[in-house]
């Protein structure tokens, strides 16, 4: 029975372009747009940010090569469990699968919190209702948490019941994402000041405290540094 499951084949509905879009969507999270300006550039500077991202890219390449090798050895269904079981045995497969589940259970809700941040930017305090508590100096409201939970439920339901439609949306959003990055980068070119790249390794020893409601007129990090991190964060 288990051998039949491992050799079963799934219907192919993803094109090469769809796979690319899915990969882009999985790689680029909202932190790629927020953290370079709030943490990476002030603390590490443009040079430090590039070094850190280059190290991260090298680690991800090693992981990608391992995935490719395991998939070629175990082409059947089953994902990470089947790959690990084929090479290291059932116990390692069991542990790796559980760790992967824990990683997804922590990372996916974390990305959903971006919707709460977007609500604050677009609608001010419209969603700040219900219970309220604070974590690491950041205010959390029931309304903003509900937005993220409902979005996850909707996306999960669509991925199960309408996977082809979901993939088309994923592809469209990936194209819109890269187009938006390109447009904003081009618009920022006239505002680059070469003197702003002088601090290659940042000026702050630690990440600055994040206020609950950052002022809108606060001066951002140097435009030159933004462009450096912007180009690197895409990868």
How would you describe this protein?
The protein has about 240 residues and is mostly helical. The protein has helices at about 1-5, 15-25, 30-75, 80-90, 90-125, 140-160, 165-190, 225-235, and strands spanning about 130-135, 140. Strands 1-2 form a two-stranded antiparallel ribbon. α3 (about 30-75) crosses α4 (about 80-90), α4 runs antiparallel to α5 and α5 packs across α6. The longest helix has about 45 residues, at about 30-75. The two termini are about 40 Å apart. Mean pLDDT is about 75; it is low at about 205-235.
Secondary structure elements and pairings:
Layout: H1 2-7, H2 16-27, H3 31-73, H4 79-88, H5 90-123, E1 132-135, E2 138-141, H6 142-161, H7 163-188, H8 223-233
Antiparallel strand pairs: 1-2
Helix pairs in contact: 2-7, 3-4, 3-8, 4-5, 5-6, 6-7
Helix content: 55-70%
Q: Main β-sheet: number of strands, strand sense, barrel status? A: 2 strands, antiparallel
Alpha-beta content class: mainly alpha
Strand content: under 5%
Number of helices: 8
Strand order of the largest sheet: 1-2
Distance between the termini: 41 Å
How would you state the average pLDDT, rounded?
75
The total count of strands amounts to: 2
- The radius of gyration over CA amounts to 21 Å
Overall form: globular
**Unreliable parts:** 207-235
What is the succession of H and E elements? HHHHHEEHHH
């Amino acid at each position: 029975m288990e051998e039949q499951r491992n050799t079963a084949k799934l219907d192919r509905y993803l094109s090469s372009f769809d796979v690319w879009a899915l990969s882009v969507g999985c790689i680029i999270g909202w932190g790629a747009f927020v953290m370079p300006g709030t943490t990476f550039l002030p603390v590490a500077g443009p040079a430090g940010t590039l070094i850190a991202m280059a190290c991260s890219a090298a680690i991800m390449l090693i992981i990608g090569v391992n995935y490719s090798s395991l998939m070629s050895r175990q082409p059947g269904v089953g994902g990470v469990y089947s790959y690990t079981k084929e090479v290291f045995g059932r116990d390692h497969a069991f542990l790796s699968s559980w760790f992967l589940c824990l990683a997804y259970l922590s990372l996916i809700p974390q990305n959903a919190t971006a919707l709460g941040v977007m609500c604050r930017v677009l609608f001010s305090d419209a969603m700040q209702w219900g219970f309220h508590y604070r974590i690491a100096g950041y205010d959390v409201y029931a309304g903003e948490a509900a937005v993220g939970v409902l979005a996850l439920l909707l996306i999960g339901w669509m991925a199960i019941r309408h996977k082809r439609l979901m993939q088309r949306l994923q592809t469209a959003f990936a194209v819109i994402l890269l187009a938006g990055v390109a447009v904003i980068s081009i618009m920022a070119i006239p505002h680059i000041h070469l003197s702003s790249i002088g601090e290659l390794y940042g000026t702050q020893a630690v990440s600055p405290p994040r206020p609950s409601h950052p002022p809108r007129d606060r001066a951002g990090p140097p435009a030159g540094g933004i462009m450096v991190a912007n180009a690197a964060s895409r990868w």
